[in-house]
Amino acid sequence: MTWQERSDRTLVRDLKDRDGATVTLLGRLVARRDMGGVAFADLLDRTGLVQLVLPGGMATPALQSVIRCSGVVAMNERAPRGVEVQVAELDVLSAPQVDLPFNPESLPSPCTEGGPKLETLLDHREVSLRSTKYLAVVRIASEILAAADDFLRYRDFVEVKTPKLVSGGTEGGAGLFEVKYFERSAFLAQSPQLYKQTMASTPLERVFEVGPVFRAEKHATGRHLNEFTGIDVEIAYPNDLRHLLSLIEGLVRAMGARLAERCQGELDMLGTKLPVLGEAFPVIDLDTAKEIATGQRPTRSNPAEHLSAAEEQTICEWALREHGSEGCFVTEWPTRFRPFYSLPCAGNRKKSETFDLLLRGLEMSSGGLRQHDAAALEEAIGRQGLDPAAMEPYLRVFRTGCPPHGGFGLGLERLVQKFLDLPNVRCGALFPRDRNRLAP
Ligand code: ATP
Ligand code: MG
Residue 329 phi/psi, 5° resolution? Predict the structure, then answer.
């Protein structure tokens, strides 16, 4: 038997085909109006919002009540979506028992200034996440994931899930959360890096993972969470770094295209526009990026190491101005400042075959070709102050024969933030985790 909608319920999106019919609706009462002595209310279900006309003498339930009502469908040009339901019967299934901290339906778009403070919205996630505008953000995140899924599976990628309880770190600088693991300590994975490399070394060749990533960094910025959703991708046998760049550029374009195709309603409701992706993301090396950002070319005695948040911003402004694209690749990062598994450039081992992808002024992804020579890898592990003995299981992947490979990791919340031009990465998360927030 196929699963179907319960038979006694009509969804709001189907009302337009039911003129004159008696229907039953289930949903939440999100607005109330009194006009010329007639009481109106708006009911919201998962498919949309409809105006209810309440009969004289019926008390209007409190805002945010969950109701079931029956009545006759009537076309009315002046009603939102041109249809309303003239209610005959109404049951309140659940009414709020406390005052709401704010009315979710009157919240401004999270893309704009104003309204309650972000902290208040996050403290009361159970209410802010009921708002149509905030749910538009949730739907957008879901479509971004669906786009990634389609794009990658179509290209032979297999989705994997790897452990989040691990025995050590992989990303050097990024801090580790320690957890009790029976009689010893374990850590929450700060990236699926070693596992995805292991899987790409098998004859699967192409894997991706969507999963939680934990970083115990004491940041207090608008771009860092302590738990985020990583979209991690790894392939065997890339031609070269450019091959990875075209893969991730295709992936980000597929996300943008899906949002443009399916989410115009959400984008309009949020009052925002997708980033301009242009014909091609420009590719510049780190020295050029620094020169664009600061006006000064790095020198041998004063080499470039990182890009600051402000520099990333300036580079994306330059990319839009000069190349008509808010996306920009930065390559040729110093090997010393990249993770130990990065492949040094053949011609200059101080530089690495790695990249960052910037979008609308923010790093969306880091990636690159990986070192697959066991001895070189062991040396790199030692050079970065890590313990090769602790990495034995990982090193065996290389000692037993490993294809050349490469990949990248993207952060879902940052993608949501930048596709929607949200002011803070927390706005792109459902229940953000930061230094001061562990609930709700
Ligand atoms: P940043 O330099 O911005 O701190 P990172 O270089 O430490 O980031 P990576 O280790 O390269 O981050 O992680 C890959 C991707 O995961 C990043 O490009 C970003 O999209 C996302 N990401 C990393 N750290 C965070 C974080 N703390 N909060 C949200 N997303 C993150
Ligand atoms: Mg990075």
Answer: -95, 140
> Residue 387: what pLDDT?
85
Residue 331 forms beta bridges with which residues? 285, 355
- Paired sense of beta strands 48-54 and 165-166, if any: unpaired
Give the mutation target among 196, 226, 228 for probing the ligand 1 site: most ligand atoms within 8 A of CB: 228
Determine the atom of ligand 1 nearest the C-alpha atom of 174: 7
Q: What are the residues whose beta carbons fall under 8 Å from the beta carbon of 290, sequence distance 6 or more? A: 296, 297, 298, 304, 307, 311
Strand order in the sheet with 362-369: 158-159, 206-214, 227-236, 405-411, 362-369, 351-359, 327-334, 283-285
This prediction's pTM: 0.97
Q: What is the mean pLDDT of residues 280-300?
A: 97
Mean pLDDT of 306-320: 98
| Helix/strand number for the chain, H first, E second | 11, 16
How far apart are the CA of 186 and the centre of ligand 1, in A?
A: 22
Confidence of residue 144 (pLDDT cuts 50, 70, 90): very high
Nearest atom, ligand 1, residue 365 CA: 18
**Residue 329: CA count within 13 A, CB half-sphere:** 22
Which sign does the torsion angle of CA 47, 82, 65, 116 carry?
positive
The pLDDT tens digits of the residues spanning 85-137 come to 999 999 999 999 999 999 999 999 999 989 999 999 999 999 999 999 999 99
201 Cβ below 6 A of ligand 1: no
Please report the pLDDT score of residue 5 as a whole number: 72
Which pLDDT value is given to residue 172? 61
Per-residue pLDDT reduced to its tens digit, 339-393: 999 999 999 999 999 999 999 999 999 999 999 999 999 999 999 888 888 899 9
Are 355 and 367 a contacting pair, CB within 8 Å?
yes
Our answer on whether the CB atom of 214 is closer than 6 Å to any ligand 1 atom is no
